[in-house]
Amino acid sequence: MSKRIRAGALTALVTAALAAGTVLTAPAAGAAPKTAAPKFLSASQLPPHPTSSWTAGPVTEGFPEALGFCVSTEGVPSYDYRHREFRTDLDTGAVQLTVVADTAALAKALAKHYDDLIRTCADRIEKADPDVAAEGRDYGKLPVEEGARVRGLHTETSWGANDISLMSVGRDGRTVTVVQWGQMGDFDDAPVTAFKKTTTTAVNKLY
Known about the structure:
Elements: H1 3-19, E1 55-56, E2 60-61, E3 81-87, E4 92-100, H2 104-119, H3 121-128, E5 132-142, E6 148-157, E7 162-172, E8 175-184, H4 192-205
Keywords: Signal
């Protein structure tokens, strides 16, 4: 997602996103069994860019700012968030988040919560900033592990910024992953088929 939108509207958009959150109650600390840390996508597993190769950043603790545009931590337990950011030499970027919940039931609820935030993001953007027109699209479910869903979001500002994002939420047992890809452009520029493959790989690769 272009920094031109985020710079002017991010605070208001995140505030609106938080208002849509649903509180999820976690069990007592120590209730979850220890598991191996989930694995992340590599740069070569992102949708191919026609003129630039992808570079993967390190796996980092914490919630990525790049996802704060539509997805947030508000209303959910304080899980250990980990993420990896990706970039090209041009105005295209991506990020993957992983969250290990305490139970499979909590992970299912968390995945639905994140998908609901993405599904309603376009409406919340327009309510938060009258200078931004937004449209969301549902690209359907993917039959991988406990399931995944892919959605698209296009935003256009009154001053001409034009951006397209693809976002997905998937789950494997107690682990939820969110993947976001974005660049300047519209729905015609979105590599939906390649992103679905990336999402399937992301969920399969967790364990």
